[in-house]
What we know:
Protein Yjbj, Chain: A; mainly alpha
Amino acid sequence: xxxxxxxxxxxxxxxxxxxxxxxxxxxxxxxxxxxxxxxxxxxxxxxxxxxxxxxxxxxxxxxxxxxxxxxxxxx
Length: 75
């Protein structure tokens, strides 16, 4: 996944992120602004999990949310 594209299209991606990590608020997602490291930290903190588990979850999310998919859906 290209995180430069994610950052540039964060508004379109936010919904998919929130579907997976529903505890993240709109305000938190706005502050994250598509930055992977910030998203990772928020997932860890909000769900009380180890950084390794948060990384594993985020990598799995990346595999199932290819940027080509959401880019096509939002043309």
